[in-house]
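re: ur msg from earlier - yeah i can do the manganese (II) ion complex, just paste it... oh wait u already did. ok heres what im feeding in:
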Amino acid sequence: MTSKTNLTINAQRLWDSLMETAQFGGTPKGGIKRLSVSDEDKRVRDWFRAECEKLGCTVEVDEVGNMFATRPGKRSDIAPIAMGSHLDTQPTGGKFDGVLGVLGALEAMRTLVDMEYQTNAPIMIVNWTNEEGSRFAPAMLCSGVYAGVFTPEFAYSREDRAGIKLGDELTRIGYKGTHKAGAIKFSAMFELHIEQGPILEAEAKMIGVVTGVQGMRWYEVTVTGQESHTGATPMSLRKNALLASARMIDAIDAVGMTHLPGVASVGLIENRPNSRNVVPGEVFFTVDLRHPDEKVLDKMETAFRAALPKIAADTKVTFEEKCIWKSPAVKFAPELIDCVRNGAKQAGFTSREMASGAGHDAAYIARVAPTTMIFVPCLGGISHNEAESTTLEECGAGSQVLLNAVLAHDTTLA
Ligand code: HGY
Ligand code: MN
Ligand code: MN
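and the outut:
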């Protein structure tokens, strides 16, 4: 009889699946470009569905494309325990951000099936649509719909920079499901993820026992000046939107530097008309502010908004700014954090408690179910980069702790 203490995942099989799925959107530099609800996303979704069905799981899709693969337990009267993350990536993403969480869960499921281990609760794997927020803002959009933060209609209406709507893309790739978002229930969710920062590697710890996610806010700024000839327009008469934006971006960086450990970033910028001999007339850019403490995040927002008007006046431009997303700081469920801590100990891995600097679907799911996360190191703390890297051992460790934590929680449901 298999006891839960000797259920050992197969790290090589997990690694092989990670490398196999890296082909869906694989880039010449060894990264992945698998933008949300793209053709590449469809291919990995189809692969994931087939792998789960091979294990005897039922696969359901909700109205915003979230995928739920469920293996029955001894008891059908209790809600499943979920393991979830995301399969979409940044435009120059790596092989592990998000996908390790979904495939680490698949490996845990494969192990349960191989060992014919019957859990009390059903066990579920979730692929959350549009976690990255790169193609369609904001991030964590469809776990947010599941948690009731956004409506499905809001999600459908989100446009990428080419004006294509998320809802139309879901229909096009065949993943606009029939289940209402939030209707497919689970009792708890564990999310395995690479840390995407340098702490675990620096401290030579294998497992991050994650306690929560910092607060995040996204803004959009449009700066309007006046297009004019770069040769015939005297410097004193220019209304240079790009010059104004450059000064604003420097001021935004200063907001981060003066509110540490907070962070302030501008990641997306569009300069128009972007012609070498035209003084730029309009610039669009995005702002990303984060801090573990909401009160400090308020101060950062105030400082950011205070900086723009003077810069605009000095450069004779106008601007519009709006906040498009607020995700408050989140604390995870203590009882699940204990399952992770004990799961790491059971597997003989070193661990340390930490909060997450990056956003994750778990931040929204924590609003509707007990949730927590497990981190493993990544090389140099680098992520959102084609060079993102981690090892077979670290991926295997994460999946093993995920399985141990899920089984520990499952025994409380007997
Ligand atoms: O923005 C984030 O932190 C996440 O990677 N979507
Ligand atoms: Mn991620
Ligand atoms: Mn990411």
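cool cool. The chain has a mean pLDDT of 97. ping me if u need the other ligands too
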